[in-house]
Structures are given as C-alpha cells and as structure tokens.
Amino acid sequence: MTIIKPKPTALITGFSSGIGLAYAKYLASKDWDLHLVSHDESRAEIGLKALNYSNTNVYLYDLSKPESIKELSKSIPTPNLIVANAGITKYGEAGTLSSNEKLDLFYLLCNGVIDLIESYLPEMKKQNSARIVIISSIGAITPMPKSSIYAAAKSAVHSYGESLSKELKDRNISVTVSLPGYVRTKAHKRAGLDHLIKKVPSWMWIEADQVVKETEKASLKGKSNIIPGLVYKLVRPFLQMALANSLWNRITRRRT
Question: For the chain, how many structural domains are there in total?
Fold first, then answer.
C-alpha cells in the first residue's frame, strides 16, 4: 500500500512582491502548500499571476491591525513554516509621524509579528518539527536616521526572534531572523525613497531570491540569524562605528 505524505504547509505574510513573492516561488518549486497573505487585493492578483502555482490560498488582511491577526489565526490552520515578512519602509523625521502612524507601523513590523507567531505556537509545539522565519532588517543593528520607528521595530523583533530561538530549541522549532540590507524590491519606491535607487551603489543591493536562498539555508540548519549577502556579512563588525555610519548616511541622504 502506498502511503501519501501530506505536503508541508507555509504561511507567508506580505507575499505579493519582493522577498515574500520570492519566498512563495521558492517553496512552490519544492511543492509546498501555501497560505499567502497580502494587504492589497490588486497587488495580490499580480503576485498570484507571477507565482503561477495552484496549491495556494490567498487571504487579504491589514496586519497593522490587531483584529486582523486574530482573524487570520482563526482562518489559517497551523502551518509547518511561518514566514513573517509583511512590512513597509517608513521615512520621516522624529516627531513628524502621527500617533496612529507610529502605532500601526510598530504593530505591523513588531507587535503583530509576535502576536501572529504566538497564536500558532501552542499547536506548532505539538508537531514533530516546525520552523519560523522573521524578516527583519540590517537596520535592526545599525542607526537609521529619519527612519527611527522602523529601525526600533526591526530591532525589537530581531531581539524577540533571537530569544525565541533559544527558548524553542529543545522543542524542535527553529526560529531564524533574517537581516537583509538593500534588496531590489518596490518597497523603497512605494515609501517615497526613490532617491536610494540612484544613490546607493549597485554593489550594496542584493536580489530577493538571494535573500530567500540564504535565509532558508540558515533556517534549515537551525541558525538563529542570517545576514544575506557577502557585502553585508563583511561590514557587520563595522556597522556601529561612527565612520561607517557617517559614510552610510552620506550615501543615503535625500537632497532637498
């Protein structure tokens, strides 16, 4: 008698473009069942066409709202892999963002990620194995002037993921935090940061596919964190140095 094993399942937030779409394509090539979450219906349709894969379920939720996380966790069964990728880049001087903007941004990038993961943890602990991937940012470990709320949220979720990785190690659940630098996606343009595309040198950009391949490799090995891209691995020891930050800020400064 032939025993057919069920396909592994993945929940990917922010799937419609960039790293999320690249992750969906990668897992589709491995024949996973995918539960895909997007905020925007039109972008979700474009993402689905680009994915061109039948074993998918798509959900539309605004993950900057706590009620959306609650509804999502009721609608989507516990997966074998969570890829917490949804997010936006928010640019603005300190003191210029409204209270709602700050609350929504921090929830989307940090508190909502925590709520999402912890809503599934009780059932994930019952599985023989499970994995969690959190897409943070290189901004979690280096100052980001005029993106302080973004950097703070990414730093907080990075710390959460590292701590959770140690906590769940004996439960056969791996938690990996990925900290990509500049990735060729549409996120910067949507955030009004078009100048970065021209100002940041080409060698500082990496492709979303590369982020996914390196992140998956680290996750399968049970590593708690990964910085994709050779250039970022090399500069990591210098990211807190005044000279490095001065050069970084000079490169990325918006000219008025």
Answer: 1
pTM of the model: 0.86
CA 82 – CA 92 distance, rounded (Å) = 30
Q: Where are the beta strands (DSSP E) in the chain?
A: 9-13, 33-38, 56-60, 81-84, 130-135, 173-178, 182-183, 205-206, 225-226
- Which position has the token pair 């996750």? 219
Say which residue the tokens 């970084």 belong to.
248
Which tens digit of pLDDT belongs to each residue from 201-216?
A: 666 778 999 999 999 9
Report the half-sphere exposure of 82 (CA within 13 A, side-chain side): 27
158 part of a folded domain: yes
Domain annotation covers residue 1: no
Does the residue 2 lie in any domain? no
CATH code where residue 112 lies: 3.40.50.720
Considering the domain boundaries, does residue 240 fall inside one?
yes
Torsion of CA 116, 122, 123, 125, to 10 degrees: 110
Q: What's the burial of 126, exposed, middle or buried (CB within 10 Å: 0-12/13-18/19+)? A: exposed
Q: Which residue in 53, 55, 54, 56 sits closest to 38, CA to CA?
A: 56
Domain hosting residue 197, numbered range: 9-252
Other C-beta atoms within 10 Å of 58: how many? 17
Note the pLDDT tens digit of each residue in 108-121.
999 999 999 999 99
